Amino acid sequence: MAKGRIAQLAIMAIFALVFTALPSRPASAEQNTCTTRANRWAGWQNLYDPGNKAPRSGVRANISVYRGAVCNTDQSQNNFSTAWVLLRAPLGFPSPVGYVQGGYFRWYNSAIYTFAEYRVGGQSTFNRFLFTGPAIGSQPDYLVYVASDSHIYVYAGGSRLLRTPGDYIDTLESGFDIGPDFPLQWLSETTYAQSDIPGTPTQETRYSHMRQGKFNVGWLTGEPDTSINSNPSRWTFTGISDSGTYGRNYLSWTYANV
Amino acid sequence: MRLRPVLIGVTLALAILIMAIAQASGARQQTSIGKASLQVVTKMPSSPQQDTVRLAQAIASPSLSIPKRVSLASGGVTLDPVDASVSPKVSREQVTTQFKRSALLGPQTATAAPDVRLVRLTRPHSSWKDRLVWAVIMLAVPDQLGSIGPAPDPRDDTTGPSAGSSLATTNTIAFYDSHSGEFLMALQQSS
Known about the structure:
The complex is a heterodimer.
Chain A: H1 2-21, E1 40-46, E2 56-63, E3 80-88, E4 99-107, E5 113-119, E6 127-131, E7 141-146, E8 151-156, E9 159-167, H2 168-172, E10 176-177, E11 184-190, E12 205-214, E13 218-221, E14 226-229, E15 235-237, E16 241-243, E17 247-254
Antiparallel strand pairs in A: 1-11, 1-14, 2-7, 2-12, 3-4, 3-11, 4-5, 5-6, 7-8, 8-9, 12-13, 12-17, 15-17, 16-17
Chain B: H1 3-24, E1 28-33, E2 36-42, H2 51-58, E3 70-72, E4 77-80, H3 92-101, E5 115-122, E6 131-145, E7 168-177, E8 183-190
Antiparallel strand pairs in B: 1-2, 3-4, 4-5, 5-6, 6-7, 7-8
């Protein structure tokens, strides 16, 4: 009996040692010292439309909601962690490019907000809209698309967040009407390398039911063709997969606290 | 005989007017976007009055509410004045405190003084119609926000981080329910 007891205690001690020796997982509190502010992204995009069917005029996905911790020495709204879908000006348009996006967003010490943001191409100003946030663990449907009235709309979880004051020509093409064909992005982002994108190794952020809007056609399966990871020592994501449950989808998360 | 110079003048004026209208309504021109040379149609961009100006006008004088209806183009919302006799459950001080705690302004500064007005908020395609709300307005806060925005064009930059988007002077208007104190929405516009 005594031997068994000793063995039991030894096993418990080993478990305790292993758990304390494990590298720290991304914590829920804000963490780390912020260094240089430089926006970073991770995830998938459709930049070139390899199918080249109908023009791309919308982007859509369900994104699972998790809290990304941010570094703790910039206490402003510019220190953020966010996940979103976005419609941008055609490649090659001069900066500042027009864009319209929707997703969820938090910054230092804040709650999670639902947001929409847009900038008219060629202008330095931008507009941001914040709404009461989605619940952690939910998977709202985020979509940005050019509607039949030629304005761009943003929806989240079935609620309309935004209708751009100008049409897509004003907003994304700086007044040059070359038709509604725009690159699409499904990405996570932070402003500092020391911050977390939403999702952990055991609770990844899933972009599911990724779709592209085709002008005058409707929503088709998304066809991402390009990935970006500007913080690979800390973040990672999977390739695109197809499943009946999640449609076209991928997972992204913060895997290291470096 | 005296009519002839008048007729010539009128004809010339009409010709100039017609040319101006034609130019404004979309003249064809050749332009180059990226590597492709495209035949495009220029379109006069619509330039709605900046919401910033509307906000400044709305709070030009100290008051409980605003002097007249304000429509914010970027937010698609309409704000209407409220009669001075209306007494909301949530006080001006309570909503100001809540706004400051929300971190919507980032770190507090000596000059960050929100102006708080009671308004009736109407937002199309939502349940907010003539809803009595507190509008907390912060104008011209310097270096407040950088855009979220798109990942860079890979032809300009590869996968490296981009320089942080420049910080802009920003106006914020946040709406809180006057009955429950619940945060409803915030509009933020850089200037």
